[in-house]
Amino acid sequence: MNRRTLLGATAATAILAATGAFAAAHGPLKVGFIYVGPVGDGGWTYEHDQARQKLLAHFGDKIETVYQESVPEGADAERVMTQMALSGVKLIFTTSFGYMDPTINVAAKFPDVKFEHATGYKTADNVAVYSARFYEGRAIQGHIAGRMTKTNKIGYIASFPIPEVIRGINSAFIHAKKVNPDVQFNVIWAYTWFDPAKEADAAKALIEQGADVILQHTDSTAPQAAAQAAGNVITFGQASDMGEYAPSPRVSSIIDNWAPYYIARTQAVIDGTWQSANTWDGIGAGMVGIGEITDAVHEDVKAEALALKDSIASGAYHPFTGPLNKQDGSAWLAEGEVADDGTLAGMDFYVEGVTGTIPN
Amino acid sequence: MNLGAIDPVLLIASLMVAATPIILAALGELVVEKSGVLNLGVEGMMITGAICGFAVAVETGSPVLGFVLAAMGGAALALIFALLTQYLLSNQVATGLALTLFGLGISAMIGQAYRGVKPPATAKLNLGPLGDIPVLGRMVFSHDWVVYFALVLVAGVWAFLKYTRGGLILRAVGENHDAAHALGYKVVRIRLAAIAFGGACAGMGGAYVSLVRVPQWTDGMTAGAGWIALAIVVFASWRAGRVLLGAYLFGGISVLQLNLQAAGVPVPVEILSMSPFVVTIIVLVFISARQKGAAVAPAALGRIFHASS
After folding, report:
1. Tens digit of pLDDT for each residue in B47-101?
2. Beta bridge partners of A253
3. pLDDT in tens, A274-285
4. Structural domain range at position B277
5. What residues of A are in contact with residue B10 (Cβ under 8 Å)?
6. Interface test with A, best of B43, B258, B272 (most A CBs within 10 A)
7. Helix (H, G, I), strand (E, B) or coil at B220
8. Closest Cα in chain A, distance from residue B1 (Å)
9. What ipTM was reported for this prediction?
10. The domain spanning residue A297 has which CATH number?
């Protein structure tokens, strides 16, 4: 690039940025969303888009929203964010773990644009992070799974070996083990958030090896369809209710409810009170919802699950309460001790009893 | 680790399902390439077939009709390619790549109304007493009709190319289109038919993913299966039997690696994930190496034909 084109490019960028700022100052607030999957995935991205629509309904003409779906995690994400920021978007929600570094990089270039990154841990003056305590919902799933399984084999379709996913496996395992000491978890790492064919194959492989409960941390409904075809297998909706598979195989679900948070943060930008923060809410605050437990679950089990939900919501019980050991047998939490958020946020180990190793 | 948990019967049954879309797409491309045309748009034709088949099956409630329309959708897209390359003499590689991009885009557009919809189930074929044979019944005779259709098609294409006059003409066109033209064969028309057949096969393969294997519609759901099919045609040195072998190997190892993970085999997940690609290529290259390498490719592959030249 010679100096003239560099100057030209810089000038063009400056003009774009200026017109963007101009438009934003005189029009409605523009809010942008970056999605990792299609809005029709029926899971993770679907719920973020539902929240976007509720946000729009709440503020009406005062805001405008834009979104980009199926954005790959990596360099493409940076381009999309940059383009959004240049087009006058003042608040950008980046809704997948893999957007963490791209978000930080782009945020450094646009100090007057606010960024909200989901499920990450890196913040900056104009980057806040938010996540939901999905592991609270996983505890309830683990409880139901442990009580319902007849083969004592529970299949788990994991996505990437990141703390959020490992927390989910641990939480589900602890609570399944509590009610069924013989329970065994088989974990498949799919290395994707969204690939229906691969998720379906993974579910089939687990079912063929005797699993009669499938937990998933991937976003499509393909595993639900595979379980339905197999019969006698139960599943849980992931991120979204996936109610089209109720009452069976889907017997309950974890529902992400992002709307209240999105509304509060957008209001803060409008009021000029927005500040970088680290929000991590669970069932109690309403960010994690538990979908209806269907009649396929025995009444007693359902009552236990709801009692567990209430005790987690009220704060009386924490899903990671000692005594708990790590997989290698070393002590982690003493009797009655509760895991601190720092350890949970960076969790990179299995608890005692989970077989297999976590890929690097 | 518990290898005993892997049931070989179910494993082979799953691999037959996993390989079917690739067999169909690769077989179509085999015929296209045998006629001397290189169509890199397999992925685009597959995904178009996937949404056409899905939409029609949902609207009519008939999966069979879905597969028929998927074949027509794939063939229609292929005919665009045929028009551009055979009449307007455009570059086949570039046009094929464009076809893939076009197919991905148009399928996403048609598919918007079909997200989260469940398609009608494709029933397993009841083969009567065959299905009751122990082991073999569950392994081989418990599938839907498309699995067997694909196998019959493999035999059909093999017999057509080897034993029929039509097959000989098709190969002649692919080996030396000028000589075939001099003999009075309609080179462009024959290639047109081959391209349409290739599109129809790819379309059906795509519909198998959206109607049976997953079954649901999501954007870009064929996820590279078309490219695998293209590679298998080359590594199978343009032979129908080896296409079947390659597709079963690839499908089999894809399923096997998930099973090994579930069984807790202490092999790094990264190695398991890439094993289908590596093993399929090594095996097919090894088989093909015994022949005189490049001589097996159709001599006129990818070359533009015009009657004046």
Report:
1. 999 999 999 999 999 999 999 999 999 999 999 999 999 999 999 999 999 999 9
2. A237, A291
3. 999 999 999 999
4. 3-296
5. 208
6. B258
7. coil
8. 8
9. 0.77
10. 3.40.50.2300
